[in-house]
Amino acid sequence: MNAAAPATLRSSRSLFVAALLLGAAGLGLMSCETVGRVGNADDGGESYQVASTDISSLSQVIEKNPNDPEAWNMRGSAYARSKQFGPAVSDFNRALQLDPNFAQALANRALVYRQTGQTDQALADYNKVISVDPNYAPAYVGRGNIYRLQGQTQQAMADYDKAIQIKPETAEAYYNRGLIRQASANHEVAIDDFTSAISNDPLAEAPYYSRGTSYLQLKKYKEALADFNQALQINNKNPASWAGRGYAAAGLNDIQKARESFHQALGIDPSNSAAKNGLSQLPAG
Which of 37, 49, 51, 152 qualifies as a cystine partner to 30, CB 3.0-4.6 A? Predict the structure, then answer.
């Protein structure tokens, strides 16, 4: 590594890392279980097995098979992916009228409830999924996400552990478990979880970003820079990743790259405080 960055920049970097630890989950995960991506707040990687949003063709399927719960669940998934949450819940309700123990429809409805702020209903649905199918990994991930956001980290960790035990390729469970460990400053083990998430879903942006944040906290600037670069290859419109790249470059004393990175972040989001703070601490030039 090159010469250490100035003390003022190191202090600013610490504030930046703290902000990342609070906001990492907002990037969204890839999906380990579905066609979504981990860290994606739109689907959470917990259910929604249908990628198509061709609602009209799914409606034709329902017309031909009105008593098939799978058909209703499929159209509900399509509605949910297109953010038509009211019709989605109606379809999941119909699927569950036909089959009250349909685990996937319950998990799908729970995910819609969680996305629309109906946490109690979501938790009830996840609990029912687990009662009817104790080996349905997405339900543990979904319930764990609720627990994590509520600050019930022990319960969340237990659910992520269970999801991984049932299905070791469940990338989102590793990712979210990593976020809990990262928030507790257990960066080495958090990095292990983010690495496992990346191994299971290498095209997801969020685990690279979060792993880069932990590397930054550990002053492993070369590794952090590589992760922020990878996150930007996946999504070059994320100002947080550009800001992270700036701090990693500054840690390597590459002031030009740091300045360019902070400017890129501010070009996307002029109010980005991490980039503003980092830029202000760089030597004049």
Answer: 37
